[in-house]
Amino acid sequence: MRGEELAFEVGGSMVVVTVREFDPSKDTEGVEAVERICEVGPSGKLSLFTDLHGDPICRVRNSPTFLMLVAEIGQETVGMIRGCIKIVTCGKKLQRHRKNTTEPASKQVPVYTKLAYILGLRVSPHHRRMGIGLKLVQRLEEWFRENGAEYAYMATEKDNVASVKLFTDKCGYSKFRTPSILVNPVFAHSLTPSSNVTIIQLPPNDAELLYRTKFATTEFFPRDVDSVLNNHLTLGTFLAVPLGSYSPDTWPGSPGFLADPPPSWGLLSVWNCKDVFTLQVMGASRVKKVIAKTTRLLDRAFPWLRLPSIPNIFQPFGFHFLYGLGGEGPRAQKMVRALCAFAHNLAKDSGCQVVATEVSGQEPLRCAIPHWKMLSCEEDLWCIKRLGEDYSDGAVGDWTKSPPGISIFVDPREF
């Protein structure tokens, strides 16, 4: 992508801003400097700093197609933006089958669309209100259109007024979905899953078949889910079933399971964000740090008490992301609780400090997911925009105007 120059008048003189593709050989240090100054925030207030481990495109590089742009004045990096493109489910339609076949007379099948995602928009505080953020979004949208994307969306905190105004007022995006980010601390003690539940780790091909059969019509389901499940950052897909129904030794494979499923079951996959980036809470008072440390010391000394200790989130910490969470049956919530306890212990053994997931606010299994309100975001905000006129979603209509479904599939490559 060619660079583009934009001129502004500042203090009576003209300033030229260049927007171009990120060059890892010369832009990494400047990008990291902007990340630090944008995320640490005002002194004395809690904020979240992200350490990208020297890889500014780490949060998009696992996507099928991605791009990062930087804005610079002279030799100084003053802003950046990242984007990626994939094919996802935007709705479903009824497909009828011919007679004299073993298939059901009709079934729901997914309708796919090419979707772009914007993340990591940053502009240095010293260079805001110059139109740099707007220009970065517009240039990225040009690339989306060139690559056939039909929609673009972004996620932000609902109280991030500046970001919401930029996208909704100036870029033509509309508020679309309000999922919940649920975060649970990893304690110094292990959790004990229910003794009436068996947890089985599925081979990737079994996991793929189960997801495509049960979740392909879920909004935002990635058509290349096999790439996600086979990625080295996916630590495994785990199925919870009632004790006595199946075991690792008697597992019949997904075809056998789907032909004769137990009355209730739960499913989730685990993505290792720790090897991609780490987080750190900044601006906490000494009192808060001392209280948190005290809970950890007590938890380590008396693990049998099962104290809800506060992990050390004031130093760089890693986390696991739970995705593809779902289940069926009257005891599905119990299955999900068992899976979350199992995932907690997996994170503990890996040295992570928290476990996170993101689900629709209407998700029926949401109440079974343990989380701390003080660490979670009850209403994340997703905004969406239609990019062109020729679409593959005729059965759905304009996706931007569709009502929310009960569930969403959150791709871990974009978290």
TrEMBL record:
The keyword Acyltransferase is assigned to this record: yes
UniProt feature coiled coil, ranges: none
InterPro entries (alphabetical): Acyl_CoA_acyltransferase, GNAT_dom, Plant_NAT
Gene Ontology molecular functions: acyltransferase activity, transferring groups other than amino-acyl groups
Location of the N-acetyltransferase domain: 17-192
Keywords: Acyltransferase, Transferase
CDD domains with a match to the protein in the record: NAT_SF
PANTHER family reported in the protein's UniProt record: ACYL-COA N-ACYLTRANSFERASE (NAT) SUPERFAMILY PROTEIN, ACYL-COA N-ACYLTRANSFERASES (NAT) SUPERFAMILY PROTEIN
Family: Belongs to the acetyltransferase family.
Protein name (Swiss-Prot/TrEMBL): N-acetyltransferase domain-containing protein
UniProt source species: Vigna mungo
Higher taxonomy: Eukaryota, Viridiplantae, Streptophyta, Embryophyta, Tracheophyta
